[in-house]
Amino acid sequence: MNNNFNIGVFDSGVGGTTVLKEIINALPNENILYYGDNGNAPYGERTLEDIQRLCLKIMEFFKVNNCKAVVIACNTATAASLEIINEKYNIPVIGVINPGAKSAIKASKSRNIGVLSTPFTAKSNAYANAIKKLDDSITVYQEGCSELCPMIENSWETYENREEILKNHISTFPETVDTVVLGCTHYPIIREDIAKLFTKTIVDPAKETAIELQKTLEKLNLLNSSTEKGKIDFFVSGEIEKFKKVAEKFLGFKIDNIYQVDK
Ligand code: DGL
After folding, report:
1. How far is the CA of 105 from the centre of ligand 1 (A)?
2. How many helices (H) and strands (E) does the chain have?
3. Is-catalytic flag, 184?
4. H or E stretch including 142?
5. Per-residue pLDDT tens for 47-80?
6. What is the Cα 60 distance to its own chain's centre?
7. Phi/psi at 194 (5° precision)
8. Does residue 90 share a domain with residue 103?
C-alpha cells in the first residue's frame, strides 16, 4: 500500500462534509476522495440490503481509485454496512458510531443519553448497542427523524416549519437526558438550531472519528509523507449545484474539483 494513496470518505450526500472538515483539520496533507451519494439519498429510510448494496458500490469506486483507507461518514451506512465492508475489504475502514458512542459516554453525567438519527439508525439500535458495550449502566433514548436529512440536503433555512419539527423530536427525550448525540452526519450542519432547543451537551462524532482515523494511519504507517496540502476531489451522484451550495457554506471554502458519477 502506498502512503500517498487517497482516503475515501462517503455519505448519502452532503452530511459527511461535517466529518470531512475534521479530517482536513487533523490531517491536512492527505489526499481525499469525498463521495456524496445524493442521487440515492436519503439512506435512512431504505432497507438494510439496499444500503449495503449502495455502500459496496462506493467501496468498489474507492478501490479502483487507489484508496488506502475509508471513512464511512454516515451513521446509517455505518450501522448497515461496517461489518460487511470489513469482511470484504483489506484496508482500514472507520465508521462514525463507535467514536460517537465514546464521546457521548465521556460527556454524560446523568448516564442518560439521547440520540437523534435517521429512522434506520434508530431501528438498528446501533448506538444503544455501541454505548452499552462500553458501559451498560447507561440508558439510551433513540429518536429517528425522517424529515431532517432531506431538508438539510435541500437548504434547511428555506423551511418555515423547521423549528417545530426539531422541537417534536427533541421533546421525546426525558428531562434526565443531559447529552444528545448528533447521530446523523447531516445534523451538525444545523447544530445551532438544535442547540437553541436542547441546551445541555451536544456531541458530534466527527472529531473523534478524525482522531481514530489519524491513530489508525499512524499505527499502520500509512500517513502521507508529503509536506504539501492534500488535494480534495468530490464525486456526487445527484445534483452537483445543490450539493455545492450546502457543502461550501459549511466547509467555508469553494469546491472546484467536483465530478458527476452514476447513481
Ligand atoms: N448522513 C447520514 C447519516 O449519518 C444519512 C442520512 C440519510 O441519508 O438518511 O446517517
Report:
1. 22
2. 11, 10
3. yes
4. strand 139-144
5. 999 999 999 999 999 999 999 999 999 999 999 9
6. 19
7. -65, -40
8. no
